[in-house]
């Protein structure tokens, strides 16, 4: 069974601002003033996480697209976790 | 005669453009056959990571370089033909012949052939220890060389030298940089920006020599040093040559494919041949924001073009529209390029900040609109400048604000 993504974290030390994630999922990712990816969350909160996907400022999160966004990162800076905190990606 | 293999979507090139295209095609067409032909034997990997310290200095496991595992291709029913190059294209028969003798008949073809590191054409440049940095195999050679090297020379005033010099210094290797031009990155930057980069590189312990062209590589089978046209000699166990990227268009051009520096394409990334598209570093395409033919070499551009080309191969008529940008960091200096940064006729510059103040930007203006920017330690201005380019912002009346280094450009968006 495919594990459901519950939590997302951008490792700011690894992120180089290539913006691949933004190209895939602009409704969830954007670059901040330091050219690092942040997660767009409800209430105007923007940080690199960890953040649960329920906190994202979108009505629904497509699991496959989110995984693609993480997989597209050329420095593997986006970490995906399941409900139990287990790391789904990078695997 | 062997029968042709028939493939609905044939992709030449297994980099980010080709792989993203395959992924997009599979999402939209669950059953159509897809094949990727790559002259590299590896599954899709991160070319960006090749010059990043984490990978290079072995801080991360080597496998981290791979963004798709081998089983990804099987799981998505994509035929990955690795270690094989495409030799010829017959647009009438709609076939591509491969280096292993196979012929593939395509319905739709994507040429995402990327670029390769420009080779050094001087006496002795075939000696061991002369390195390039474009492919995984080339990176492996450098990783191997830095294990024992004591003295290294980097050639070229661009991003390969900028990032490689830092890696070499992290390994405490005595590093010298030779630049042919009067200052660093002279083809894209002004002298003030170039000198700012040199400040950072020199502070990092690299010796820089400018206006130096190498005449000969010294040594027996292995490099021992270099001799320049001005008569200077430099000792070296290894040399990293970063003198640009070229697109191997010759492979296909004999068959009516229109090429310039790259493969020519319209805003839909269609080439002049029916059912043939191009994407990524090899595409010299019509940029509808800048309204000119441009060629870009960066990751997210290639990724987006792979997606758009795939959508067009699926029959959707979608133009490629993006303000491109490129960033690099080394020696504590962030460099960013946004949009078109080439100085052409009619382009004027508005400067923000200065070399002395530690952050310096140049905004390029043409016909009253912003077309690009170069930013030293001002990467936070990338986003607003991209927006201003995309929105065709008219600068009239805002010249003072644009020239004020402390003015928040977001206010103009």
In summary, what is this structure?
The complex is a heterodimer of chains A (91) and B (413). With 91 residues, chain A is α+β, with helices and mostly antiparallel strands. In chain A, 16% of the residues lie in helices and 24% in strands.
Number of helix segments of chain A?
2
Q: Biggest sheet of chain B, open or closed, and with what strands and sense?
A: 7 strands, mixed
Report the mean per-residue pLDDT of chain A as an integer. 92
- Span of the ends, CA to CA of chain A: 15 Å
Strand runs of chain A, count: 7
Describe the protein's architecture and organization.
The complex is a heterodimer of chains A (91) and B (413). Chain A is α+β, with helices and mostly antiparallel strands. Chain A has helices at residues 20-24, 63-72; strands at 7-10, 29-31, 37-40, 46-47, 51-52, 78-81, 87-89. In chain A, the strands form two sheets. Chain A has a four-stranded antiparallel β-sheet with strand order 5-1-6-7, covered by helices on one side. A three-stranded antiparallel β-sheet of chain A has the order 2-3-4, with no helix packed on it. Chain A is globular, with a radius of gyration of 12 Å. Chain A starts with 6 loop residues before the first strand and ends with a strand. The model of chain A has no long low-confidence stretch (mean pLDDT 92). Helices cover 22% and strands 31% of the residues of chain B. Chain B contains ten helices and 25 strands. Chain B is globular, with a radius of gyration of 22 Å. The mean pLDDT of chain B is 94. The A-B interface holds A 14, 16-20, 22-23, 30-35, 68, 71-72, 74-76, 90 and B 16, 20, 23, 46-49, 52, 54, 64, 67-68, 299-300, 303-304, 307, 325, 327, 329, 334, 336, 379-380, 382-383.
């Amino acid at each position: 069974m495919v594990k459901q993504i519950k939590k997302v974290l951008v490792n700011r030390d690894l992120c180089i601002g290539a913006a691949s994630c933004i190209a895939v999922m602009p409704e969830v990712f954007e670059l901040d003033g330091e050219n690092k990816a942040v997660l767009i969350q409800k209430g105007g909160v923007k940080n690199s996480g960890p953040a649960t996907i329920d906190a994202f400022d979108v009505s629904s999160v497509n699991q496959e697209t989110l995984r693609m966004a993480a997989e597209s990162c050329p420095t593997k800076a986006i970490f995906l976790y399941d409900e139990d905190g287990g790391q789904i990606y990078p695997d | 005669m062997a029968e042709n293999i028939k493939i609905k979507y044939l992709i030449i090139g297994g980099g980010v453009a080709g792989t993203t295209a395959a992924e997009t095609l599979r999402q939209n067409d669950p059953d159509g056959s897809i094949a990727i032909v790559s002259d590299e034997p590896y599954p899709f990997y991160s070319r960006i990571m090749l010059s990043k310290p984490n990978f290079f200095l072995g801080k991360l496991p080597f496998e981290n370089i791979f963004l798709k595992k081998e089983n990804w291709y099987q799981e998505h029913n994509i035929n990955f033909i690795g270690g094989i190059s495409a030799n010829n294209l017959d647009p009438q028969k709609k076939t591509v012949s491969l280096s292993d003798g196979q012929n593939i008949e395509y319905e739709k073809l994507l040429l995402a052939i990327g670029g390769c590191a420009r080779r050094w054409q001087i006496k002795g440049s075939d000696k061991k220890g002369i390195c390039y940095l474009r492919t995984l195999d080339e990176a492996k050679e450098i990783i191997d060389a830095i294990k024992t090297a004591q003295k290294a020379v980097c050639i070229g005033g661009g991003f390969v030298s900028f990032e490689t010099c830092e890696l070499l210094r992290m390994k405490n290797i005595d590093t010298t940089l030779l630049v042919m031009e009067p200052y660093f990155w002279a083809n894209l930057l002004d002298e003030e920006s170039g000198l700012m980069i040199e400040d950072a590189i020199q502070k990092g312990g690299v010796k820089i020599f400018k206006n130096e062209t190498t005449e000969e590589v010294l040594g027996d089978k292995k490099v021992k040093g270099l001799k320049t046209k001005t008569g200077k000699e430099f000792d070296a166990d290894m040399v990293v040559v970063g003198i640009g990227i070229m697109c191997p268009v010759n492979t296909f051009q004999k068959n009516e494919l229109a090429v310039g520096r790259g493969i020519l394409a319209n805003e839909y990334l269609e080439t002049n041949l029916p059912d043939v598209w191009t994407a990524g570093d090899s595409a010299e395409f019509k940029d509808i924001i800048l309204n000119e033919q441009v060629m870009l070499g960066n990751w997210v551009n290639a990724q987006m073009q792979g997606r758009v080309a795939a959508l067009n191969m699926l029959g959707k008529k979608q133009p490629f529209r993006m303000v491109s940008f490129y960033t690099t960091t080394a020696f504590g200096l962030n460099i960013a390029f946004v949009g078109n940064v080439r100085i052409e006729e009619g382009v004027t510059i508005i400067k923000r900040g200065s070399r002395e103040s530690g952050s310096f930007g140049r905004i390029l203006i043409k016909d009253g609109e912003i077309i690009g920017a170069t930013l030293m330690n001002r990467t936070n201005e990338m986003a607003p400048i991209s927006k201003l380019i995309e929105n065709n912002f008219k600068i009239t009346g805002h010249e003072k604000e644009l020239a004020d280094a402390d003015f928040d450009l977001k206010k103009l968006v």
